[in-house]
Design goal:
Aminopeptidase; alpha/beta; homodimer; aminopeptidase (chains A, B); seven-stranded mixed β-sheet; 22 helices; Transcription Elongation Factor S-II, Chain A; globular; Glucose Oxidase, domain 1; 36% helix; metal-binding (chains A, B)
Chain lengths: 726, 726
């Protein structure tokens, strides 16, 4: 197995190099001696050092709530700047960049309220939850409004859920209660409005988050990691990423802003998240017929559709549910904190490492678990730089993004402001947001080209099994080229700040974290997510005692960062992209080909394009792995730059700014979001599904168009990989 | 004067170097000895050699009509391939690339006809005009149809012309006759249809083309260069460039094609171009009141509006004019012929030199004057390469585009197919289409950064005055930085194949030709343009006797090509872009600022962005002109590549694919087409004009949006010029 061999030979020096930093394809061979800076670096970055650093940094970051643009947020800005401007351990430079963005907050003087059963507040189990800066649960970007109507239960608020419900009763004038999951937050309201629903309540069912447990007497936090009955997941109820008033423009003073009423992808009707104790009080009183089996949750009652409204036997009988919501939009200044280590040889090539800084409340896990890791990596590298012992070949940029929780705003504004420079120069973007969801195993997603970079990181995990060996136990797949390997996920969504880098800029990206043992829990996410319980105490007690997984992620991400920033050749493997494209084509052929052909549309041009891509990738790979190349390159730096440019710009070739006119910010024709369940090219899959459903000739024509778009992009990418002569 | 100094010092070696090939900013200093390949090259490229080559090549190219995709076109494909694949004088490689494109032709069996006065055919003065392959005059992409109505005279067919006419009489059911000029070909029909006009005739008024002369007894061709009475300008009546059925996609077999009925930017009503003898017979019989003074032409009669229809005194009184048009669309295979000389040091950097190959008839001037120049340059360079005496630093790509006359189709399909590779690697595009409109003076247009490259070409012109000194006599402007210099035009239109490179790909481009002495003629263009009279005989007798101007253009364009392909540093001057931006800002401020401010919109962010751009450009210029840099660069090739990448990608930073949703293929926010007469940023100018006219708040908002778009693009460009540290 080729991969195994690379791993083995690449990591012969592991015992000496605690961090395991190896440079690209031509790193440390067995028996070679490490450059002095590398040994120096390895001496400092031992496990204990990162561990202590992460824990204490983490404690500092999570002392107070630091929702975007609040005083707590500003304190973290100052903390980042102090660290990155430190004369002994700081970076070459660090500065803040402010954007004036449109956020949405509850009204502190007029709390949102849901009547029929007063709305519970999140119960304070520790003093931190009593902090007056804890923002009350609300649906950011949900409109203010007072609505009143009969309650219905609409499962997860998917369009199909409302359709099912609408087949049973009239939804006009009703308030729907739905559980988290299945559909995006904003979509739960967007899907509801066309049916006449006038308000929505959202809660987290104990089935989905607590493995069914519900009692804070002995089951939930503070007795375990599970969500207490009054806990509420806050969140951005907004589908598009970036500042909502300045699409495609950085939100500076003076920038054109669309009218607030023109914002799309936000709830058209009032919506409010509530705790499951409130939800239980409502759902278990509902009348009407029983909802389907797969709509049922963990409450000890039948989940009924609603009469609409409550059962005649209920004390609430004949009562409406009333929502009094006072959310309001505000223009606020949100800061990114930037830091940089200039490259020694190619300062105009950037490896960007980022995470957001803002939280909903204290944000111990989200995002401070990631920020602590970023600070630790920056500190270790900064120290080497300040001591004059090391400088990477390429420039490393650290980004501490603001207002991510409101829809990836800081990173999106950054991408918009610097679109040309970033497009031209960025080698890769590394995102570590929540660094530790749980402490079982590594999880990674990214472009196929970086899979190999992550695999090469072969440091010991928390229990002395290597990260790689542990990972492959939990999550693996069969690759045509490599056999059984850990499964690296695709970046099709917009769950964190990588979205602007992958989807808008076409920058090769990856996202790393530690995550669950899925055999022990079916929790949608760690239960304190976006609640007032996500505190240092919670993190250190239940998520990562001893911060060992933080340390593993720090070493993994740091190792990847250095490989990308320091290798003479970039460690990207373009043949792995070919494997993914081939898989997409065969999936598309299996699912769609017969029907496409029946509609006069051929898959052959797409197949031919993928073949061309494979041929070009194989050829470039051969060049890169040619044993004489390193020798050759030492005297021909432009030859290395040429190959690196081909690798760096590969993902850029998949951008088509006109491919998805209705999907804001999505330009990458391989990784754009997809509604269809068929795991293939998103434009093709969604267009074919639509054509299948409608049978309309115009819809089949759109499927053909999307096939041509992706065919041209893949052919174009193949042209960029094909070697220039001489 | 800084520029003068550069010119003088740069050209000390001129006596030795007949071609004057100097490399970038660090070419041959006074007293330095030229590299051997340069002397070798200069020995071959003497005036006589180019002269002979151009004339004989020209004769070959123009023997038969070679309209796109005809047998004559295929013969030129074979001729190009034979030349570029020649073992002694050919290029490294040459090949054809075919696209399946939608063209429009008259029906050979059913000629288009205009009745009331039978339509004259172009009179044959020489056997060439009798060639059965001469395509009858028609409006390509004009619909087939038979329409009949009263005639009216509508000046140039501008929207305002139809408005004027409509204020006098009802246009419903009329046929309009209009002269060329003032509005695009297709627009003459597109503007007409909303007023109820059902057909359009187009002619060339002797006032606009012949300096008033009309008689073929003694005044027009074959007695002079002027258009004979039966001559008709053919043309593409289509506003968007590229294959009309495959917007943004290369027109391969299997590519998705839009329905023919969805093509936009083509005439919605029948339209036919006719000769001025036919036009005179119609116009001088029109009734109604006299048209305004500036609608009058050279016919010896009053140009009346039409009654509608003819005067009661006319023999045509009460007659309708009937158009019987039989044009039809066809899918045809059109070829680009590509040729390449691979770069020695940076094969992944491209300088592209192109011209179209297809003509309307024999196309001696359009395009063969340019093709002859391209072949000559390729032959001279190919000979050096084949002899092993020279190879450029960067790759040179020659493109002989097909189907340009139908709307820049070959070059647009090429740009679409290779969009990613070309965007990533192309240093510049040089277009020489009609190389000699007339033999008076050089004419050039291009990005401000290349102005300096053209100025440095200081070869002798036809009468021993240098090209530069001759040029500045005919066309000059005052530059803040340089004082009096030749005027290099802006590339705002889509008049030739540079359009896809500038507007769609954002590649720094230039267009070069020799042109008129405007004090001797007001002809819109050379009079045989797009007629059967554009023959070798016409070109060699009236346009460029002795082909001396062909030779001057060949040496100028060849010199520019080699400077771009061979310089260690690219010879682009980014400060000249700053000068243009400053001029645009001050023009915008003068024309718009008061009214913008009155509508709450500030120009300050734009002004600040331009200042940032100036600062960054000055800094980069200083780096480049630092006397120690050459020394430094010799040991640091990546430093040179970094600077060259900044220069190469500068125009790319001005692309915004979403800025002009209604302008197909236009993405460059500085050079996109503009309707407003205010010579500033096109999006801003057009949006402000619209807002001024309507006074609507939404329209002022759009003006603000365009200001923000251009501000962000300029800021972004400034960021790319600002030096990366270290």
């Amino acid at each position: 197995m080729m991969l195994k061999k690379v791993l083995l030979s690449g990591f012969a020096g592991l015992a000496v190099l605690a961090v395991g930093i190896l440079i690209g394809h031509f790193g440390i061979e067995k028996g070679s001696s490490a450059p002095s800076w590398m040994s120096d670096l390895s001496r400092d970055v031992d496990e204990k050092l990162i561990q202590d650093g992460a824990a204490s940094t983490h404690r500092e970051l999570t002392r107070v709530p630091h929702m975007a643009t609040t005083a707590g947020d500003e304190a973290t800005v100052q903390y980042m700047l102090k660290n990155w401007q430190d004369t002994d351990t700081g970076l070459d430079a660090s500065w803040r960049e402010d954007y004036r963005v449109y956020l949405s907050f509850p009204n502190r003087d007029k709390p949102n309220n849901v009547s029929v059963g007063e709305l519970c507040v999140e119960k304070a189990y520790q003093s931190e939850q009593d902090d007056p800066e804890v923002v009350q649960p609300y649906a950011a970007y949900g409109p203010a409004g007072e609505v009143k109507g009969r309650l219905v239960y609409a499962n997860q608020g998917k369009a199909s859920d409302y359709e099912t419900l609408n087949a049973t009763l009239s939804l006009t004038g009703t308030i729907a209660i739905v559980r988290y999951g299945g559909a995006g937050r904003a979509d739960k309201a967007i899907n509801a409005a066309p049916f006449g629903v006038i308000g929505v309540l959202v809660y987290t069912d104990p089935y989905d988050i607590n493995d069914g447990l519900m009692s804070d007497e002995n089951e939930t936090y503070p007795h375990s990691w599970y969500l207490p009955p009054s806990g509420v997941e806050r969140g951005s109820y907004k589908n598009h990423f970036g500042d909502p008033l300045t699409p495609y423009l950085a939100a500076k003073n003076g920038t054109y802003r669309i009218p607030v009423e023109n914002i799309t992808g936000i709830p058209p009707i009032p919506i409010q998240p509530i705790g499951f104790e409130d939800a239980q009080a409502l759902i278990c009183e509902l009348g009407g017929s029983a909802a389907p089996e797969d709509w049922q949750g963990s409450f000890p009652c039948s989940y009924n559709f609603g009469g609409p409204g409550f059962a005649s036997s209920s004390p609430f009988n004949n009562s409406d549910v009333t929502l009094h919501l006072y959310n309001r939009g505000e223009l606020r200044d949100s800061a990114n904190v930037m830091g940089v280590i200039w490259g020694s040889v190619e300062p105009d090539r950037y490896v960007i490492y980022g995470n957001h800084r803002d939280s909903w409340v204290h944000g111990a896990i989200d995002p401070s678990s990631g920020t602590a890791v970023m600070l630790e990596i920056a500190r270790v590298l900064g120290q080497k730089v300040k001591a004059g012992k090391w400088r990477p070949r390429r420039t490393i940029i650290f980004g501490s993004w603001g207002a991510e929780e409101f829809g990836l705003i800081g990173s999106a504004e950054y991408a918009e402001e610097y679109v040309s420079k970033l497009s031209q120069r960025t080698v890769a973007y590394i995102n570590v947001d929540i660094s530790v969801f749980a402490n079982a195993t590594l999880r990674a997603s990214g472009s196929p080209t970086v899979q190999n970079v992550i695999f090469k990181v072969n440091i010991p995990g928390s229990d002395s099994v290597s990260v790689y060996d542990n990972w492959i136990r939990y999550s693996n797949r069969t690759s045509a080229a490599y056999g059984n390997i850990p499964n690296v996920g695709h970046m099709t969504g917009a769950g964190s700040d990588y979205a602007s880098f992958v989807h808008y800029l076409g920058i090769t990206s990856l996202d790393i974290s530690y995550t669950y043992d899925r055999s022990t829990t079916r929790a949608r996410i760690y239960p304190a997510y976006h609640t007032a319980y996500d505190t240092f105490d919670y993190a250190s007690t239940y998520i990562d005692p001893g911060f060992t997984s933080h340390q593993t992620v720090a070493r993994t991400a740091g190792n990847v960062l250095i490989r990308l920033a320091d290798g003479l050749l970039l460690p990207f493997n373009c043949s792995d992209y070919a494997e993914t494209l081939e898989q997409f084509v065969s999936t598309a052929a299996e699912a769609f080909e017969a029907q496409l052909v029946a509609n006069g549309i051929s898959l052959e041009p797409l197949k031919a394009a993928v073949k061309r891509f494979r041929t070009a990738a194989t050829s470039l790979d051969r060049t890169i792995h040619n044993s004489d190349l390193l020798l050759l390159l030492s005297g021909r730096p432009l030859r290395a730059r040429m190959i690196n440019d081909q690798l760096m710009l590969l993902d850029r070739a998949f951008l088509d700014p006109l491919a998805f006119p209705n999907k804001y910010g999505y330009r990458h024709v391989i990784w754009a979001s997809r509604s269809s369940n068929v795991a293939t090219f998103p434009g093709v899959a969604d267009a074919v599904e639509k054509a299948r459903a409608s049978g309309r000739k115009e819809d089949w024509a759109q499927a053909h168009k999307h096939l041509s778009i992706v065919t041209q992009a893949i052919s174009g990418a193949a042209h960029t990989l094909a070697e220039a002569q001489r």
